[in-house]
Design a protein that fits this description.
The chain is of the alpha/beta class. The chain is built from 8 helices and 19 strands. It folds into 2 domains: 223 residues, ANL, N-terminal domain (Rossmann fold, 3-Layer(aba) Sandwich), CATH 3.40.50.12780; 99 residues, ANL, C-terminal domain (GMP Synthetase, Chain A, domain 3). The radius of gyration is 20 Å and the shape is globular. The chain starts with 5 loop residues before the first helix and ends with a strand.
């Protein structure tokens, strides 16, 4: 549970308005808000920020994917807020409906609530012809709007240091790490009234960068979240984040950005199976070509991450889609 005073809501609205401004949005924009409006703070925070900015807001919330696409067509929003995996699902669904998703008026996506890679950003931008930007927040600290990527730099997210003190620590020892070293983010709130926090451990893995940004903002930047310490799994002694595997997958032409990691145990040994969707064109190829691709993925995973994995290529659109945060890992070892 989290709580807000009236002043907290005003502060939150200001931070989200700043975030939208960093994305190049103004009062002349229409923001399609596909973050959830229920007990998830994303929808409300984005709504408050859009109103503070003076922009129009479409309070769509999550789900109802085909209706979302209809609204995108009919109302012509210029920006969209949602998770990156859901935006890819929207693009995929629109294409299945015969809609040219690049013809929409969208120009910016403000995407967050889950780790995502540069390759996924490129996929989103290619399929929708937009600029995809990263936003960061936690319900416990404030909600979305703790940090935001600027449209000019697109290299790290500016943390609003007039509201938060940020540190990076070693997640195992708690030792504070120097700038540039990757570890767990820790936040102290400076302005939160109803639910103040001191040195709150987020479990999010990142690093801090203090180089001057081309946008002119002087706030410290955090690197895109590479994963969470509790998302990390250990297999045969190697620490692995799903985002590392995603980075490998997205490098290979013919693979879709939809995958599932299945952990299991055979005897005393842990096993990892990676299920990856292939494109329609690749799926129609002969079995020998698919087997060659499976071997290449396995080799790249071994070379980059240092683990052996069984690769299973699956047909397009066969893996589950998520309207909120994507769930990429199924761990059967403790079942």
């Amino acid at each position: 549970m989290v709580a807000y005073t009236k002043r907290d809501i005003e502060t939150w609205a200001e931070l989200m308005a700043r975030s939208f401004a960093a994305a190049g949005l103004t009062r002349n924009d229409i923001i399609h808000n596909a973050y959830g409006y229920g007990l998830f703070t994303g929808g409300l925070g984005a709504h408050y920020g859009a109103e503070k900015l003076g922009a129009s807001v479409i309070p769509m919330s999550g789900g109802n994917t085909k209706k979302q696409i209809m609204i995108l067509q009919d109302f012509g929003p210029t920006a969209i807020c949602c998770t990156p995996s859901y935006l890819l699902f929207l693009a995929e669904t629109g294409e299945e409906m015969g809609i040219d998703m690049k013809s929409l008026r969208l120009r910016v996506g403000i995407l967050g609530a889950e780790p995502w890679s540069e390759r996924m950003r490129a996929e989103i931008e290619s399929r929708l012809d937009i600029t995809a930007l990263d936003i960061y927040g936690l319900s416990e600290v404030m909600g979305p709007g703790v940090a935001m990527e600027c449209i000019e730099g697109r290299r790290g997210l500016h943390i609003f240091e007039d509201n938060f003190i940020v540190e990076v620590i070693d997640p195992a020892t708690g030792e504070v790490l120097p700038d540039g070293q990757r570890g767990e983010l820790v936040f102290t709130t400076l302005t939160k009234e109803a639910f103040p926090l001191i040195r709150y451990r987020t479990k999010d893995i990142s690093r801090l960068m203090r180089e001057v940004c081309r946008c002119g903002r002087t706030f410290v930047r955090m690197e895109r979240i590479s994963g969470r310490s509790d998302d990390m799994f250990i297999i045969r002694g190697v620490n692995v984040f799903p985002s590392q595997i995603e980075s490998v997958i997205m490098e290979i032409e013919g693979l879709e950005p939809h995958y599932m990691l299945i952990l299991d145990r055979e005897g005393s040994l842990d096993t990892l199976e990676i299920q990856v969707e292939v494109s329609e064109k690749i799926f129609s190829d002969e079995i020998r070509k698919l087997q060659t691709m499976e071997r290449r993925i396995a080799k790249d995973i071994k070379d980059y991450i240092g683990i052996s994995a069984k690769i299973k290529l699956v047909e397009p659109k066969s893996l589950q889609r998520f309207e909120g945060k994507a769930q990429r890992v199924i761990d059967k070892r403790n079942i």
